[in-house]
Structure prediction request, 144 residues.
Amino acid sequence: MSRNMMVHKLDCIDEAAQDTLGQIDALQERIRARAQEFYLERAGVEGSAVDDWLRAEREVAWVPAEELRETDRAVHIRFFELPDAMIEVTVLPESIILRSHAGESGPKVLCRQITLPVQIHAASAVVRLDADLLTLSAAKTEQV
Prediction:
């Protein structure tokens, strides 16, 4: 399967990235509202708030599995099970934003921000997409 990907490497958040962060906030609100519905449906019995949240998240959003590995000089992230859609990757010094374009992946959306444990040089990022695996590697910034 061949997929398309757009990559943006930014030193700071631009207007488009800020808009995507707003979409992430709206998506989180949809998940919160749906989790509340699940809680009310079960009347607080046999379950937990975490179970309600995870169920709502699976229903509303595309949540790829992710694996982060850090070395002395770099951060490496792998994302698995991505939607069959155009994937947009925004690399910032402190986070990675993943987004699929609406309408291409069905009713679920991929709109997620991953905060990194350390700052990276966004310009150094190497991003690859093969089948449903996205890999990203980037050099760490010098820590003072």
Summary: The helical segments are 15-42, 49-60. The chain has one domain: 5-139. The longest strand covers residues 74-80. The domain at 5-139 is CATH 2.60.40.790 (Immunoglobulin-like).
